[in-house]
Write a structure and sequence with these properties.
This protein is an alpha/beta fold. The chain contains twelve helices and 14 strands. It has two domains: 189 residues, Rossmann fold, CATH 3.40.50.2300; 152 residues, Response regulator (Rossmann fold, 3-Layer(aba) Sandwich). It starts with a helix and ends in a 6-residue tail after the last helix. It binds phenylalanine (PHE).
């Protein structure tokens, strides 16, 4: 009887009020920018990175966000163009007022956006831009991946020790800082290791014909051909080599990472080896991530997806540590990040150049798949006494 009275009383009170109980106010979301290229020449870079970022944000928000505050991603596609990357940076720092930003995917694009973030004192962390000059744009600019001095040197070590190469040729894009940087870092180390670069070929940004360069390389008969270029150019270079009935031993860099290399119309790339950041199936630490990613997107995560995922987690760790959304404080926490366990490496520490040290993952294109070859570690490239 008593219970009934209580229920009747409560119902009457609700009817009188006319409203359901008001839910408690939600804390404001933390706005984080994301600039990647999901269209244009480097579209697969951007869509993969965005997938990794979205998965991480979904998991973090589900687990309660940062002290109860959810992350909200404010996304801009920069269409693989530096000028669009710069204008996206302007919008995110002024109109959208993001507290930090993730992006861009390629070094040249990140170099266009970085000065805007530096000036606005909003931390920018690129998951994938490897060119050393990117983080030299200022104290607000970070990256979540290794740098190209290490990458170029590591590839030279692999060419010498694993491929037993004594001579090499290089074909690079003379208008792209990423390509120029890698060509130089590789050449210096390969030469230091006793190898000889017998042909150096360049092309311009808008090139679509590499026949002259390929013929010059063939004439020099190098043991390996290093192509520090992006996948879209590589696909044409490899096809033209095949048309010339030239089958060089192709050696590449992280810019090759795209499933387009595994497509049926990709010719001349079988057996080629390139340096990367991650290879799904290698190392069990990433198992949970690979499973969750496959469940959400129905494919294996690429290195870009893995780096996008790790970068969100690094930024969230820094935001939690800073306990503030002030640019200066977030940057300080990002700079002090250490012992971070990600899917692209364990015990990651943000190094002196606002860049982490991680191993190279050498990958081979084999029967339409990316096959793990081996890791090239920091200590192998730069023995501790030489560091
Ligand atoms: N490192 C490349 C750059 O700086 C981008 C990239 C990273 C591409 C990882 C593919 C995979 O331009």
């Amino acid at each position: 009887m008593k219970t009934l009275i209580v229920i009747l009383f409560a119902t009457a009170a609700m009817l009188a009020g006319g409203k359901d109980p008001v839910p408690p106010p939600q804390p404001p979301k933390i706005k984080v920018g994301l600039i990647v290229s999901t269209t244009g020449a480097l579209a697969t870079f951007g869509s993969d990175t965005k997938n990794g970022v979205d998965l991480a944000v979904q998991e973090i928000n589900k687990a309660g966000g940062i002290g109860g505050q959810e992350i909200e991603i404010v996304f801009k596609d920069c269409a693989s163009k530096p000028e669009d990357a710069e204008s996206a940076a302007q919008i995110l720092t002024t109109k959208k007022k993001v507290v930090a930003c993730i992006g861009c995917v390629a070094s040249g694009l990140t170099l266009a956006a970085a000065p805007v973030f530096q000036k606005a004192e909003v931390p920018l962390i690129s998951p994938t831009a490897t060119n050393p000059t990117v983080t030299q744009q200022g104290k607000m600019i970070f990256r979540g991946c290794f740098m190209d001095d290490f990458q170029g040197e590591g590839i030279a070590v692999y060419a010498t020790s694993d491929m037993k190469a004594k001579t090499a040729a290089i074909i690079s894009n003379q208008d792209d800082p990423y390509s120029i940087g890698l060509a130089k870092f590789f050449k210096d180390k390969f030469t230091e290791l006793g190898g000889k670069v017998v042909s150096e070929q360049n092309y311009r940004f808008d090139a679509d014909d590499y026949e002259t360069q390929l013929k010059a390389i063939r004439a020099a008969a190098p043991d390996v051909v290093f192509a520090p270029v992006y996948y879209n150019d590589l696909l044409v270079i490899a096809r033209q080599a095949k048309e010339l009935e030239y089958a060089p031993k192709l050696l590449g860099c992280d810019g090759w990472e795209s499933r387009q290399l595994l497509a049926e119309d990709a010719v001349g790339v079988e057996g080629a080896v390139f340096a990367d950041h991650f290879c799904a199936g290698h190392g069990d630490e990433a198992d949970a991530f690979v499973t969750a990613y496959k469940k959400k997107y129905n494919e294996d995560p690429s290195s870009l997806a893995a780096l996008g995922y790790d970068t969100v987690c690094m930024l969230v760790a820094a935001l939690a540590d800073a306990g503030s959304t002030e640019g200066e404080k977030i940057a300080r926490s990002l700079g002090a990040l250490k012992d971070f366990n990600g899917v692209t490496g364990r015990k990651i520490r943000m190094g002196a150049e606002r860049s982490p040290e991680k191993p190279l993952i050498m990958v081979k294109i084999e029967k339409g798949e990316f096959a793990f070859v081996r890791e090239v570690t920091y200590d192998e490239v730069r023995p501790p006494e030489q560091k």
